[in-house]
Amino acid sequence: MFDVTDLTRVTPVLDSRAVTFENPTGERGAGGRAGGGRKGAPSRVIEGGERVTLADLAGPGTIRHIWMTFPPDRPARMRAVYLEVRYGGLSYPSVSVPCLDFFGSPHGRPVAYASALTSMPEARGFNSYLPMAFGERIHIDLVNGNPDPIVLYFQIDYTLGESGAGRLHVGFRRENPTVSKRDFVVTDGLRGPGRFLGWVGGVRPIDGGQWYGEGEVKIYRDGDREFPTICGTGLEDYVGSAWGMGPHAGLYAGAPLEVSGRGPIPKYVGFYRWHVLDPVMFSTDLRVTLQQIGADRGGLVERVDDYCAAAFTVCERAQAVPPVDVAAAVADLE
Predict the structure, then answer these.
(1) Gly residues bias located where (predicted)?
(2) 58: number of CA atoms within 13 Å, CB side?
């Protein structure tokens, strides 16, 4: 397999392409025709409720980079725009996730940060470098779940030729509010063999207390039932920090979003964790959860909060993820 990270390799075994509104098919020598080569179609108005195809490509190939932007707006309107990806002509999506969560920023609130796989320069440009391998075909849609139009700019960079063995799956979950003593489920139900790449999470603390993030992240794999194989020590520890979690960003973990509240607990928190150098592999099944535990006056307490997760998993075969429920995704974001 061609290693794109080896920057000394120049043999053109891969056919480099890009899809934009200037070249919606990605065909060779077909870009820039809309304005005779003078920037004729950089963007498009997406009407309220409209589903637009960003890419419908024959493979084999790999999506290498996705960039897009749409103008800043209220959080609920920003989060109502979502992506869906189908592989090989299947009727169900294997990716269904709000755009901002896919690019690393939950709660409909873009924030400037950079990680190894995603970034949001100046909180305006949305980038993903997560490889999305496809075989016979890939179909990528964007849906404007708002009643009003938005203006969309985008570019999808991809290569044709060799394709990886696994298919990227991204599923979105939100529990608002969580249930006391019942762990929030980050991902569950996908069958292996596969690899859990990580997740983008969000918290809207709605309980009181001094600290919301004492719960352990648990990773159940390959037959684990009552107890997991991998069990962390607390949310901020899982994200690579300690003794609380303020705004920060790193290559593989960070918490760039924090909207301050009146007390010691913020109103909104957004974080990410990528399992790149510490891979989480599974053969048959995977379940990832997070406990709803906090701290108050020096002791542990059970909590009820609002949690969301966009979970990224590569599986050998394409499978369905739950479609985005726009009403549930945008509730209580203002």
Answers:
(1) 28-39
(2) 1
CB 167 within 8 A of CB 87: yes
Contact 129, 117 (CB under 8 A): yes
Per the CB < 8 A criterion, the answer to whether 52 and 141 are in contact is: yes
Q: Is 230 exposed, middle or buried (0-12, 13-18, 19+ CB in 10 A)?
A: middle
Per the CB < 8 A criterion, the answer to whether 242 and 236 are in contact is yes
User: Which pLDDT tens digit goes with each residue over 191-229?
Assistant: 999 999 999 999 999 998 889 999 999 999 999 999 999
* 38 burial via Cβ count (<10 Å: 0-12, 13-18, 19+): exposed
Name the burial class of residue 280, with classes exposed (0-12), middle (13-18) and buried (19+) by CB atoms within 10 angstroms of its CB. middle
Cα–Cα distance, 200 to 311 (Å, whole number):
7
Q: 3-state SS string over the chain?
A: CCCCCCCCCCCCCCEEEEECCCCCCCCCCCCCCCCCCCCCCCEEEECCCCEEEEEEEECCEEEEEEEEECCCCCHHHHHCEEEEEEECCCCCCCEEEEHHHHCCCCCCCCCCEECCCEEEHHHCCEEECCCEEECCEEEEEEEECCCCCEEEEEEEEEEECCCCCCEEEEEEEEECCCCCCCCEEEEEEEECCEEEEEEEEEEECCCCCCECCCCCEEEEECCCCCCCCEECCCHHHHCCCCCCCCCEECCCEEEEEEECCCCCCCCEEEEEEECCCCCEEECCEEEEEECCEEEECCEEEECCCEEEEEEEEEECCCCCCCCCCHHHHHCCCC
The CA–CA distances, whole Å, from 268 to 136, 153, 304, 330 equal: 41, 27, 14, 14
Q: For 13-39, how does the pLDDT look when each residue is reduced to its tens digit (9 = 90+)?
A: 899 999 999 999 999 999 988 888 888
